[in-house]
């Protein structure tokens, strides 16, 4: 996984941003991450479950053309001392994973109101067991696997627990379309599985 991540980072470093981090919006007193993806640059859906990797170097904007079909990575974000939006490693509150499925294949208990066109859904990748990041590798089978205690989630089914000790599904994150932008995290959505 580390090699793969590094590869993504290197790709991101060598490219010019086509998508910028826009702003942080406060919701319920907490800064939520906001990012935008240009919708027409989303890669086409292939196969049963397609997971896009979204990884960017710390402090670098996200480039949609760097999306990978192999692996989910999310990107933590925050603000620096000058108020600029930056990507920070290791802030679990700001990590998320974005999934895109063939239309109509997202299944309950996903909160369909939190999908875009019934095909794109975003989750926090903070494991509900003990807080590890589950969006690390091994996406081919369509399961998100937590490296800490082998918790497994099915992103196609609302990230419900399909293995290991996690007590509840991953938190689903709010997404919406704003024109051609896919916006994540700029409004509050209650985790339907608190
Ligand atoms: Fe994920 Fe324990 S922290 S399974």
Question: How is this structure best described in words?
Answer:
InterPro entries: Rieske_2Fe-2S, Rieske_2Fe-2S_sf, Rieske_Fe-S_prot, Rieske_Fe-S_prot_C. This is Ubiquinol-cytochrome c reductase iron-sulfur subunit. Keywords: 2Fe-2S, Disulfide bond, Iron, Iron-sulfur, Metal-binding. Its cofactor is [2Fe-2S] cluster. Residues 93-184 form the Rieske domain. With 194 residues, this protein is mainly β. It has a single domain (2-184), classed as Rieske [2Fe-2S] iron-sulphur domain (Rieske Iron-sulfur Protein, 3-layer Sandwich). Helices cover 6% and strands 24% of the residues. The protein contains 1 helix and 14 strands. The strands form 5 sheets. It has a 4-stranded antiparallel sheet, with no helix packed on it. Strands 3-14-13 form a 3-stranded antiparallel sheet, with no helix packed on it. It has a 3-stranded antiparallel sheet with strand order 9-10-11, with no helix packed on it. The longest helix has 12 residues, at 2-13. The two termini are 30 Å apart. Bound molecules: FE2/S2 (inorganic) cluster (FES). FE2/S2 (inorganic) cluster binds at residues 127, 129-130, 132, 146, 148-149, 151, 164-166.
* Main sheet properties: 4 strands, antiparallel
End-to-end separation in angstroms reads: 30 Å
Order of H and E elements: HEEEEEEEEEEEEEE
Shape: globular
Average pLDDT figure: 51
Strand order of the largest sheet: 4-7-8-12
What Rg do the Cα atoms give?
A: 15 Å
CATH class: Mainly Beta
Relative strand content: 15-25%
Indicate the multimeric state. Answer: single chain
- Ligands and ions found: FE2/S2 (inorganic) cluster
Q: Domain count, please report it.
A: 1
Cofactor: [2Fe-2S] cluster
InterPro entries: Rieske_2Fe-2S (IPR017941), Rieske_2Fe-2S_sf (IPR036922), Rieske_Fe-S_prot (IPR014349), Rieske_Fe-S_prot_C (IPR005805)
Keywords: 2Fe-2S, Disulfide bond, Iron, Iron-sulfur, Metal-binding
Protein name: Ubiquinol-cytochrome c reductase iron-sulfur subunit
């Amino acid at each position: 996984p580390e090699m793969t991540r590094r590869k993504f980072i290197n790709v991101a470093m060598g490219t010019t941003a086509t998508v910028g981090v826009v702003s942080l919006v406060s919701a319920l007193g907490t800064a939520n991450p906001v990012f935008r993806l240009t919708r027409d640059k989303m890669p086409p859906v292939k196969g049963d479950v397609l997971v896009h990797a979204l990884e960017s170097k710390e402090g670098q904007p996200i480039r949609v053309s760097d999306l990978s079909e192999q692996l989910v990575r999310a990107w933590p974000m925050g603000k620096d001392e000058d108020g600029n939006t930056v990507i920070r490693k290791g802030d679990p509150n700001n990590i998320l994973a974005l999934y895109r499925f063939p239309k109509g294949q997202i299944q309950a208990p996903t909160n369909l109101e939190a999908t875009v066109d019934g095909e794109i859904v975003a989750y926090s990748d903070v494991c509900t067991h003990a807080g590890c990041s589950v969006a690390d590798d091994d996406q081919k089978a369509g399961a998100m696997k937590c490296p800490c205690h082998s918790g497994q989630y099915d992103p196609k089914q609302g990230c419900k627990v399909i293995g290991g000790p996690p007590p509840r599904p991953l938190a689903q994150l709010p997404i919406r379309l704003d024109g051609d932008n896919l916006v994540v995290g700029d409004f509050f959505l209650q985790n339907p599985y608190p």
